[in-house]
Write a structure and sequence with these properties.
Aspartate Aminotransferase, domain 1; Aspartate Aminotransferase, domain 2; 2 domains; seven-stranded mixed sheet; four-stranded antiparallel sheet; 15 strands; globular
Length: about 375
């Protein structure tokens, strides 16, 4: 390896959301890596810092082309640079889409389990959450097509938020599934907002299909949220894009993002994005391989020591989604683990109404930290069983 992912960086005292915990606790919850950013990104930011003036920024052509070239090279999808609109983040873009593409009291469909902030973006903007539970069978999720069609056919359903790849399970949706989904949404006049922020974090040998690339139908009805922030661990720099091939939808999103004042970059957003996509691919490949070994370490430990805990079979993200229904008691498992050993994991219930028996575990950290987490998990689960 050309890069070291074993090095532990002390993040205390950096106003880190993830590490704002009690002394002795080990946070492995929020989707935030404990790896320093790729050297080209740090160099680009250093050069920008050395200039010493941090005024208003413009969006150069190089920004859009870095996305275009990356998606063509990595994902075999050709974008027109004019399809791209800058935004400060995927979550602001989702909230804008809810406000601009739907009316108050309409339904926004989400497939659960899903990223919990989707619920906030819908509820906080006066729309109804329409929960479409995915079917969990033999460690994988599938779509309940009959229920999905009934919900999409409701005239009050105007927007669907798709997670591709799926968070928290890490599952990759295949092209056939996306085509079928696009056809259904077209039939019932439902726009698809596809959150694809995790698309570059893949197990070696796997790839994902952008929703807009699945078919001309999918391309026409979709708004796609993309960003380098998850893959390159630069979420705090607040840089993302919405990709909208359809001219009318693009105009609506452009108007919405500008009205919401989330379409202007900070002083570091452009340099970080360009350096990530143009110069940091080798770092990403090594990071994905390292995280893959971390995932194997945890899944192997669970298979040997807690075979009743089932791990979702996902090939994307650095997250593990654990089905703990076989051991869960009345007392909340995540809360117990945190109180017992200090291991801070994400409680599954926040990802959907039917997910109380699940836990989300972030393993994007040095291997020694993963081993520490495993030891804490083993201690706490054994104690939990004795309740």
């Amino acid at each position: 390896m050309n890069y070291s992912f074993d090095e532990i960086t002390d993040r205390t005292g950096t106003h880190s959301l993830k590490w704002d915990v009690k002394t002795g606790e080990l946070p492995m919850w929020v989707a935030d890596m404990d790896f320093t950013a790729a050297p080209p990104i740090r160099k680009a930011l250093h050069n920008r810092l050395e200039n010493g003036i941090f005024g208003y920024s413009v969006i150069p052509d190089e920004w859009a082309m870095s996305y275009v070239n990356w998606w063509k090279r990595r994902h075999n999808f050709v974008m027109d640079p004019d399809w791209l609109i800058f935004t400060t983040g995927v979550v602001p873009a989702i909230s804008t889409a809810v406000r601009k593409l739907t009316c108050p009291a309409e339904n926004v469909l989400v497939q659960t389990p899903c990223y919990n902030i989707f619920f906030n973006s819908i509820r906080n903007n006066g729309r109804n959450i329409l929960e479409n539970p995915l079917v969990f069978k033999e460690g994988r999720y599938g779509m309940d097509w009959s229920l999905l069609e009934r919900q999409l056919s409701d005239p009050q359903t105007s927007l669907m938020i798709l997670c591709n790849p799926q968070n928290p399970s890490g599952q990759i949706w295949d092209r056939e599934t996306l085509i079928r989904l696009g056809d259904l949404c077209t039939r019932y006049h439902v726009t698809v907002l596809s959150d694809e922020i995790h698309c570059d974090i893949m197990e070696p040998g796997y790839s994902y299909t952008p929703f807009a690339s699945a078919s001309e139908t999918c391309k026409k009805i979709s708004v796609t949220c993309i960003s380098p922030t998850k893959a390159f661990n630069i979420a705090g720099l607040q840089t993302a894009a919405v990709m909208v091939p359809d001219e009318l939808l693009r105009h609506k999103m452009w108007r919405g993002l500008n009205t919401d004042e989330v379409a202007e970059p900070n002083a570091f957003a452009m340099d970080a994005t360009i350096a990530a996509f143009n110069e940091s691919e080798d770092w990403l490949k090594e990071m994905c391989a390292y995280v893959s070994e971390n995932k194997k370490l945890v899944t192997g430990f669970l298979a040997e020591n807690f075979p009743e805990i089932k791990v979702s079979k996902g090939e994307a993200t650095y997250l593990l989604w654990l089905d703990c229904s076989a051991i869960r008691k009345e007392k909340d498992l995540c809360e117990f683990i945190r109180g017992d050993s200090g291991l801070y994991l994400s409680e599954g219930g926040q990802y959907g109404s039917f997910c109380d028996n699940f836990i989300r575990w972030n393993v994007a950290c040095p291997r020694s930290v993963v081993l520490d987490g495993i030891a804490r998990f083993e201690k706490s689960v054994n104690a939990y069983r004795r309740l």
